[in-house]
Amino acid sequence: MTTSIPTPTKSELAEASMRRSWFPVARLCDLDKPQTATLLGVNLVIYRDGEGRISVQSRRCPHRGGDLSMGEVHRNSIGCPYHGWEFSSTDGNCSRIPSLADQGKIPPRASIATYPVVERFGHVWTVLEDPIRDMYEIEEWQGLDLEWLAAEPIDSSVGVGVTIENFRDVAHFPFVHKVSMGPTPEVVEPLNVNRDGLDVWMDRPLDAGTGDWANDGICMMRYRCSAPGLASITYHYEKLGRRVVAGFPSPIDYEHVKIFWGVANEVGYRGADLEECLRVEEMVYLEDIPIVEFIEPREIPWDSEFQEFSVPADLFTLNYRRSFIELMNRVEDGSHVNEFV
């Protein structure tokens, strides 16, 4: 008798595709001590060892379950706070057990999982399984000398897809962002949205009404997102230069994210400094959170379990969903990326 393998739902494919995609797990500026993260249910420790190497590893000590994030960082290892067992920062193998007189008797399978590391956009990024996409490269940032400032992460009890759609939606501005943007038109003009594989983008002039950005002059915005979890706006001011805000929601679980995000100014930018840009952009983020918290469902209804209707103002959102579906198809096809960076 042949047992058929059940066909995965689209939601299951979405989660599987995220396990094979890059997400941030810590800010570079916080690595003076070990940091913790949970990525799709996997508990991690992130630290910089005594030689300056950044490691992303399993947080649980395999001896008796100690939390390695509470341990001591050594030259090329991290030690468990419970019994001092040390694990290599390069491959996770146990390198020292203080209670053993003969270090040659370390259990050969004693190790912790070690994950790839990329340092980018002021953050540490990792991927849990064999990646099906490259680490993010943003076309409009190529050749720019950007100076980044990583913001304090924001907890949000919705999924990656819902978070990215909120970042890229323009029809909610007059209702959610009355304070940060001032009065803005309710009618959304026809959107010129482009998609190439996993990347979606559009250009749109800045209409800041009477908000904090109203006096900065003519500006064209490049909205971009890349499946599954990067969204950015690159502001190109005629008189000031370029600045950036970017969000990278990292899934604690399928319906709960920690939003890592930051701002960047082109070196020589003649507008507000990074701290002021971050202050203004944070106003926008914090206006979104109370509304997004009550969205139902908490993640995109990939399997049509909820009815939705769309209008032309949703064109960017719909193209993001198409890009995410392309990522899911890579899971089904068994596609992978051979290089980590």
From TrEMBL:
Among Pfam families, the record links this protein to: Rieske, VanA_C
Domain (Rieske) spans 22-126
- Check the record and name the InterPro entries matching this protein: Cholesterol_7-desaturase, Rieske_2Fe-2S, Rieske_2Fe-2S_sf, VanA_C_cat
Q: What is an example of a GO molecular function annotated in this UniProt entry?
A: 2 iron, 2 sulfur cluster binding
Sorted alphabetically, the keyword list is: 2Fe-2S, Iron, Iron-sulfur, Metal-binding, Oxidoreductase
UniProt cross-references to PANTHER family, sorted A to Z: 3-KETOSTEROID-9-ALPHA-MONOOXYGENASE, OXYGENASE COMPONENT, IRON-SULFUR DOMAIN CONTAINING PROTEIN
The protein in question is named: Bll1070 protein
Species name: Rhodococcus wratislaviensis
